[in-house]
Amino acid sequence: MPIELLQPHTHAGRRLPAGARLDLPEASARWLIAQGAARLVTPDSPAPSLKPSRRDGSAAAATSTGD
Known about the structure:
Largest sheet: 3 strands, antiparallel
Strand content: 15-25%
Shape: globular
Structural class: alpha+beta
Order of helices and strands: EEEEHEH
Number of strands: 5
Oligomer: single chain
Strand order of the largest sheet: 4-1-5
C-alpha cells in the first residue's frame, strides 16, 4: 500500500524524512496512517515538495526597516 510520511519516521533501521514515499504491507500502512504519521498516496496525489515553505512570516519581518 503506497503511503507518504507526514513526519520523520524510522523504517527498517533507516531514518526517513517527512515526504518520503513507501510501499508497505496494508497493516503497516494503515497503522502509520492511524497514528497520523502518514497518508495514503493515490494516483492523483501531488509529489511532495522538496523546497521547505515558510508560513510564519519570518522572512517578511527580516526585511522590514523598522522606521
